[in-house]
Amino acid sequence: MKRPAKMRHYDYTLLVVVFILVGIGLVLLYSTSAYNGRVKFHDSFYYLKKQGFATVLGLTGMFFVAGIDYHKWIPAAVPGYLLAVLLSVAVMFIGDEYNGSKRWLSLGPFSFQPSEFAKVAVILFLSCLVSRYVKQMGKMWTLMKVMIPVLPIVGLVGASNLSTAIIILGIAVVLIFVASPKYTQFIAMGAAGAGFMGVFLALESYRLERLAIWRNPEKYEKGYQTLQGLYAIGSGGLFGRGLGQSVQKLGFLPEAQNDMIFSIICEELGLVGASLIILLFLILIWRFFVIATHAKDLMGALIASGAMAHMMIQVILNIAVVTNSIPNTGITLPFISYGGTSVVFLLLEMGLVLSVSNLVE
Fold first, then answer.
1. CA of 322: how far to CAs of 149, 152, 207, 214, 226, in Å?
2. DSSP-derived 3-state class of residue 326
3. Measured by CB atoms within 10 angstroms of the end CB, which terminus of the chain is less buried, N or C?
4. Model pTM greater than 0.85?
5. Could you give the CA distance from residue 214 to residue 60 in angstroms, rounded to a whole number?
6. Residue 140 and residue 161: Cα distance in Å, rounded?
7. Strand 359-360 to strand 110-112: parallel, antiparallel, or no bridges (unpaired)?
8. What is the residue-level pLDDT of the chain in tens, covering all 361 positions?
9. 54: nearest Cα among 284, 303, 332
């Protein structure tokens, strides 16, 4: 008797939430960027078309990755991490600079941010590495042996993009924490990390300047963007001005479609709309947690935990920056802020997590 064909079952809640966030993101991006696109490029759909193309590319990659057993990516973990390091070095020497930041590499007509690839590479690399040394994770030396290989990419990315370096470091700490049977050693690691971050901040005067701007944005010219973002949030009220009715995006808030897009969401959709966006991210993070706890092995649990850490840290950082709860770090809001590289690699990461959630019956 012929056996029935195997069927793949993914976490459909995660899949639906991803689609909702991607769809809402495109709508909100168009609403936020139409004015800038018309003024700069004589095309209201300029940013939407580029983001739409990246989204289609990312969704195609997501389903491709989701259909592959995540264990098959093990041989690619080390080469992928080394490629991330190599690309980060290349950014320092031949990278393109936009708005004072050197974060992009150009390949013909296309440009991308290697730091976005580095996040996914670190999740896969550390998931394999920690799985290999899991029986020894109770020893401090093993923790250091797992953590040390990540520091080069943190330093290289942090040279031009401190916020992404913080995210990568946070992902590494979470993955090691998940696999470690002892928690007290993280106090020492946390103290060392805080000291490293203090030295790193002091190396460049502009990083200390950001602390001063954060405390008194009205006293500095560079605090203009922060103040305009706060004006947008405050004017939104409970239900907002209405979709497409933002005033701050009309040239008052520079590059509103990038990392400050949450302030326009607050202005147009109000506290209620912003809360719904946050709720969607909370559901996404919850599904990562569920997938991690039900994974068939440690590597699957670590991949889902890494994605959870990535999403949680990045969303918290973005909203904290927009509300001026922390100094400006220039981090984007996942799936919503403009950025083709970001959305492509985020969706590839979602594909990895969907692969973990996949059950074969």
1. 32, 29, 17, 11, 7
2. coil
3. N
4. yes
5. 40
6. 29
7. unpaired
8. 444 445 567 889 999 999 999 999 999 999 999 999 999 999 999 999 999 999 999 999 999 999 999 999 999 999 999 999 999 888 888 877 776 667 778 776 677 888 899 999 999 999 999 888 887 777 777 778 888 888 889 888 887 778 888 899 889 888 888 887 676 766 666 666 666 666 666 665 556 667 777 777 777 777 788 888 889 999 888 999 999 899 999 888 888 898 899 999 999 999 999 999 999 999 999 999 999 999 989 999 999 999 999 999 999 999 999 998 888 777 899 999 998 889 999 999 999 999 999 853 3
9. 332
Locus of tokens 């808030």: 253
- As a whole number of angstroms, the distance between CA 345 and CA 310 comes to 12
Whose tokens are 């797992």? That residue is 146
Query: Both tokens of residue 167?
Result: 């995210």
Cα within 13 Å of Cα(279), Cβ side: 7
The one-letter amino acid code at 356 reads: V
Burial class (CB in 10 A: 0-12, 13-18, 19+), 228: buried
Tell me the CA distances in angstroms from 193 to 143, 146, 188, one per residue in order. Answer: 13, 15, 9
DSSP for 161-211, written as a single string: -HHHHHHHHHHHHHHHHHH-S-STHHHHHHHHHHHHHHHHHHHSHHHHHHH
